[in-house]
Specification:
The complex is a heterotrimer. Chain A is built from 9 helices and 5 strands. By secondary structure, chain A is mainly alpha-helical. The model of chain A has no long low-confidence stretch (mean pLDDT about 85). By secondary structure, chain B is of the alpha/beta class. In chain B, about 30% of the residues lie in helices and about 25% in strands. Chain B has helices spanning about 5-15, 40-50, 110-120, 150-155, 165-175, 190-195, 210; strands spanning about 20-25, 30-35, 55-65, 70-80, 85-95, 100, 125, 175-180, 215. In chain B, a hairpin with a 4-residue loop joins strand 4 and strand 5 (about 85-95). Chain C has one domain (about 10-305). Classes of the chains: A mainly alpha, B alpha/beta, C mainly alpha. Chains in contact: A-B, A-C. Chains A and C meet through helix 1 of A and helix 2 of C.
């Protein structure tokens, strides 16, 4: 059994510590994956969900919108077009959230490593909690990966969602390199970081200045019949 | 039209339109190849559609012959009555990369020509829509051209991450390991000359790739 | 029709009951949610979730660290959705606690059970998501569809027992034994009641308003974190209320908690077992179906009420 890191647990009084432990316990046992999967690796998800390799016994169930989901599964190659939509999806999810990079294409480009239009290292654009390598990994491998994620959550080690707020400048810089300087999402990440007190040294920087110059307010959706 | 009439038609077509040459014809395998000059294509297509019942355009392909300075356009036509395929090959010069569209003859051509325009930069006059739809986030040269080196582009613009899994460390500890490391697996033209890998290995069609993948030697693989 | 039911109840007792009844309903509802998922899993030949799974879900959802809200009306909608059912629990008599059931009869209960959908409609309208608007309009149409047979059944039962007081209905059935249960005396009404139960719980083939892959769960599309936790709690309440109401009207209530719970779980199992082998109806087909068969059977049942 791995040693529990002591720094995580010494904050607050005993009542809040009990609540935190209860929270981590329940969060590890009830995970909602987003029922949207990026590339070809998604073919291995229905076997994990259905009767043979039932994942509901781990407490994992699929949910259809990013607002309801905890885990974003990046299964397969992420082309630049897809990466834009994945960023929009990731920022809409509610924290704490986890990203699992399934398939080798998220690790180092996989089969499409020579392609000009796929992202090679997913870690540059959003914080990734777990990689499950394979092409594609079998359902047993995915379930074993989910179990190690559950173990990490219970030990309090999977806090990478905070990294997105604390290092937003780095991630935004990489996104701007791919998508151009006009890249913006409807989600106000800096505002959220300030509201929840998650501002770090890497939140502001040169890239966020470019973003603030080009950011336009969100226009309401045009309803057409 | 039945098959014997089609055979006769094929034998006759090079007399009727100057420059058309039936290069290969195998009625049993249903493949027929026709080479013709670029300005005779529309005549040929009208004849083949009206007379020989080839009403279905399956695809338009494009090959980049960079050493000849030409694009080769291949029009694949299929006949439902005869169950035969004709592929009509024309060559277009690379320098003003433009040609005419056959949208009025075959409606699906609009889509294929839009695709070829995006990937090769070959412009088709008269096509209904030449807008980008696949590479909407791409700002460089049309990527299927041979002068665009995709791997060099990737080496310059993307970075790699360390991948050192436990199972590989265990294999190395037992005496096995990676035979050809990933840093030497380069197929790009410019990089090939840098590293001194001979020309035979830098094969763009990729049919050599499977033999060059990282071979992991393990003593459990049965004697090497 | 005598009024001896109005025994002396002190204010503190009522307050304790008002607090306890929703809490017990929540706990029993959680177990019913687990029961539902286990039955679904067994029907699909797999193992279902572990024992405390609904509790884990609710605690995790309420423990989310960031929350997206679309305004005050969004919050009010969720409060109304949960509050409607909490108020309905206090009007639903259970063994040992009558709450305020004697002061408001079954008609008030029916009315209160419509409030959650309306509250949800308010909240979803504020979200301004097209999927949500489509979903909630379908939900309200479905509510219109199943409420017609529901009202017919309620009136039939009230007519039969000659009172709208739920406590008295239960007492009459318990005093005269099995032969006086609603299911035995008015079998047609009980049958229509089963169909209405299926629609009220929103189970296949009547789950068009959730439609997970089509409109991204309809009304729940913009609910995250605590709001979704509230909706999960509402689902627990919904299962409990519908089952206990059906048991009270047709199966003679429960003289002890064990009897009530056993009957409620049996009643909850029936829609679940039907649900997991059916696809779903379109909205207009749903309305047509509800306004044809359960209404006809209900009206026939009312005609034969003695």
């Amino acid at each position: 059994m791995k040693e529990i890191k002591v720094e995580n647990r010494r904050e607050g009084n005993i009542l809040s510590r009990v609540f935190d432990e209860l929270n981590e316990f329940c969060r590890a046992r009830s995970l909602f994956i987003l029922h949207y999967c990026t590339g070809c690796g998604a073919i291995e998800l229905p076997p994990v969900m259905t009767s043979r390799f039932d994942m509901e016994r781990l407490g994992v169930q699929p949910m259809v919108t990013p607002r309801q989901a905890d885990i974003l599964l990046i299964t397969g190659y992420v082309s630049i077009k897809t990466l834009k939509r994945v960023m929009l999806t990731y920022e809409q999810m509610g924290s704490p959230k986890y990203v699992i990079g399934i398939c080798s294409c998220t690790v180092n480009g996989g089969m499409y490593w020579q392609s000009y239009a796929t992202a090679k290292k997913l870690d540059e654009y959003m914080p990734v909690d777990l990689y499950i390598a394979g092409c594609m990994p079998r359902p047993e491998a995915i379930i074993s990966g989910l179990r190690s994620l559950i173990r990490n959550i219970e030990l309090g080690e999977s806090n990478n969602w905070k990294k997105y707020y604390e290092n937003y400048d780095y991630y935004l810089g990489n996104q701007q390199k791919l998508f151009g300087d006009e890249w913006q999402t409807p989600v106000d990440v800096i505002g959220e970081a300030e509201h929840y007190g998650l501002v770090g040294e890497g939140t502001y920087g040169e890239h966020t200045e470019i973003l603030q110059r080009v950011q336009q307010p969100l226009k309401p959706l045009e309803m057409r019949l | 039209m039945n098959l014997s009439q089609f055979e006769a038609w094929l034998a006759d077509i090079d007399h009727r339109i100057a420059g058309v040459e039936v290069t290969a014809s195998n009625l049993n395998k249903r493949r027929n190849r026709v080479d013709l000059p670029a300005d005779k294509l529309v005549l040929f297509l009208e004849a083949v559609k009206g007379e020989a019942s080839f009403v279905h355009l399956s695809a338009i392909s494009c090959v980049d012959w960079i050493d000849d300075g030409e694009f080769e356009l291949v029009y694949h036509l299929w006949s439902y009555e005869l169950n035969q395929l004709i592929s009509a090959h024309i060559r277009v010069s690379r320098d003003p990369g433009e040609y005419q569209s056959i949208y009025d003859l075959y409606r699906p051509a609009g889509f294929f020509e839009r695709d070829i325009h995006e990937m090769y930069g070959l412009y088709f006059h008269g096509a209904p829509d030449m807008e980008k739809f696949i590479l909407t986030e791409w700002n460089g040269i049309p990527p299927m051209r041979k002068e665009f080196d995709s791997e060099e582009f990737v080496e310059q613009n993307f970075s790699w991450q360390e991948y050192n899994p436990e199972w590989l460390k265990e294999l190395v500890a037992e005496g096995g390991g990676v035979v050809i490391p990933c840093e030497e697996q380069r197929f790009s033209r410019s990089v090939a000359t840098d590293h001194g890998i001979d020309q035979q290995h830098s094969n763009w069609s990729g049919c050599d790739v499977s033999s060059k993948l990282c071979r992991i030697d393990s003593k459990y693989r049965g004697g090497d | 029709m005598d009024t001896q039911i109005f025994t002396e109840i002190s204010l503190s007792e009522i307050l304790v009951e008002l607090l306890l009844m929703p809490v017990i309903a929540f706990l029993v509802g959680l177990v019913m949610v687990l029961w539902m998922r286990k039955i679904g899993a067994r029907v699909q030949r797999r193992i279902g979730p572990p024992l405390f799974q609904p509790l884990y879900d609710v605690v995790k959802l309420f423990g989310k660290k960031t929350q997206v809200s679309h305004g005050v009306v969004h919050d009010i909608g969720i409060v109304m959705a949960m509050g409607g059912y909490i108020a309905a629990e206090t009007l639903l008599p259970v063994p040992g606690m009558n709450g305020i059931a004697v002061y408001g009869g079954i008609i008030t209960l029916t009315y209160l059970m419509m409030i959650p959908s309306l509250g949800l409609a308010l909240g979803v309208g504020q979200c301004a998501n097209p999927n949500g608007s489509i979903g909630i309009s379908r939900a309200l149409t479905a509510m219109l569809a199943y409420d017609i047979p529901f009202v017919i059944i309620v009136f039939g039962v009230a007519f039969h027992h000659e009172t709208t007081n739920l406590v008295e209905i239960i007492t009459q059935q318990q005093q005269a034994g099995i032969a006086s249960w609603g299911a035995v005396q008015n079998p047609l009404l009980a049958l229509a009641g089963l169909a209405t139960l299926q629609g009220m719980l929103g189970k296949q083939p009547f789950e068009i308003y959730i439609a997970p892959a089509e409109i991204a769960t309809g009304p729940m599309v913009e609910m995250s974190g605590k709001y979704l936790g509230g909706l999960f709690v509402m689902q627990a309440f919904q299962l409990y209320t519908a089952a206990v109401l059906y048991v009270s009207l047709f199966l003679g209530g429960g003289e002890s908690w064990f009897e009530l719970l056993a009957k409620s779980f049996v009643v909850v199992s029936i829609p679940m077992m039907i649900a997991f082998v059916f696809p779903r109806y379109r909205t207009e087909d749903l309305v047509r179906l509800f306004w044809k068969w359960p209404v006809m059977i209900g009206l026939l049942g009312v005609a034969f009420v003695g």
